[in-house]
Amino acid sequence: MHTYRAHRDVTVLNDHMEVPGLGFLPVNAFVIHAAEPVVVDTGLGLPDRDFVASLSEVMDPADIRWIWITHPDRDHTGGVFALLEAAPRARVVTTFTGAGIMSLERPLPFDRIYLLNPGQSLELGDRQLTGFRPPLFDNPATVGVFDTSTGVALSSDCFGAPLPTAELATAVDAAAAGADDLRAAQLLWATVDSPWVHQVDPARFAASFQPLRDFDPTRILSTHLPPITGDPARMYDTLLEAPQADPFVGPDQAALEAMLREFQPA
Ligand SMILES: [Fe+2]
Ligand SMILES: [Fe+2]
Questions:
Q1: Ligand 2 (ion): which residues have CB within 5 A?
Q2: pLDDT, tens only, 158-205
Q3: Ligand 1 centre from 52 Cα, in Å?
Q4: φ, ψ for residue 168 (rounded to 5)?
Q5: Cα 137 to ligand 1 centre (Å)
Q6: How far is the CA of 264 from the centre of ligand 1 (A)?
Q7: SS3 for 9?
Q8: 24-44 as b/e, with b when 16 or more CB fall inside 10 Å?
Q9: Could you tell me the pTM of the whole model?
Q10: What pLDDT is recorded for position 193?
Q11: Which one of 126, 135, 200, 222 is CB 3.0 to 4.6 Å from 208, fit for a cystine?
Q12: What's the CA gap between 93 and 112, in Å, rounded?
């Protein structure tokens, strides 16, 4: 795991995975170094990953007070149950739906849950974290985070992009990918991750960016992109094209078999 500060108060725990045919997808979790420290998402659940050990390089997991799961997909919940054990005072911030989905894997004790809907806030003493619904999402439990003291927005899957190299997936600024390549990769990800976007009314979709525009973030940190440190307006424009972008159709069985034949020795 590659860790770095994306802001004075935010550490990125950066991992990535190769998606065949698409590229290298960053998989980020975050620590917000608030008066009551918060982990946002908990990485991949692959057997060779140890999220709590990676977090230990940043801070003592026992000091974590909140584990904000932006949504309970497997690339966000990898370390959640191990972290609940390592951080006995921490509670999982999620929605009613999110708690239900996570409880299908292992029961989440009610006294370890804090239910928060978009628009509601968590008071941490030195700051307030406010939940918001990102414009694009792939899970009904998705809630992003606005840190009102730093202006940092954590957007969950939204703004993500599979990048051409592992090096770019570990970059500390999304701008490293180059504006044109980044735009194409973000649009591709939008259609892969949120295929419903082709059915939305474009005006209502555009209106869904308003909470983000009103918050006017200093940085946008996506789970699936290096940090966006510049003016995000261009990326709003990119995602606004998603309803009209080509729908993604994944490889079918014939394509998979053709791919496997290529891998086989003659
Ligand atoms: Fe997801
Ligand atoms: Fe994700």
A1: 75, 157
A2: 999 999 999 999 999 999 999 999 999 999 999 999 999 999 999 999
A3: 21
A4: -65, -35
A5: 7
A6: 33
A7: coil
A8: bbbbbbbbbbbebbbbbbbbb
A9: 0.96
A10: 98
A11: 135
A12: 9
Point out the ligand nearest to the CA of residue 139. Answer: 1
Q: Which residues contact 193 (CB under 8 A, 6 or more apart)?
A: 136, 138, 157, 160
Q: How many angstroms separate the CA atoms of 46 and 157, rounded?
A: 19
Query: Which ligand is located closest to the Cα atom of residue 162?
Result: 2
Q: Are 75 and 103 in contact (CB under 8 A)?
A: no
Return the structure tokens found at 214.
Answer: 């009103």
For residue 264, the CA-to-ligand 2 centroid distance in Å is: 32
Asked if residues 141 and 1 have their Cβ atoms less than 8 Å apart, the reply is: no
How far apart are the CA of 235 and the centre of ligand 1, in A? 19
pLDDT higher than threshold 70 for residue 130: yes
Give me the pLDDT at residue 252, please.
95
Residue 148, classed as helix, strand or coil, is coil
* 164, two tokens: 């051409």
Ligand nearest to the CA of 76: 2
Cβ count within 10 A of residue 17: 15
Helix or strand or coil: residue 68? Answer: strand
Q: How many CB atoms are closer than 10 A to CB 113?
A: 18
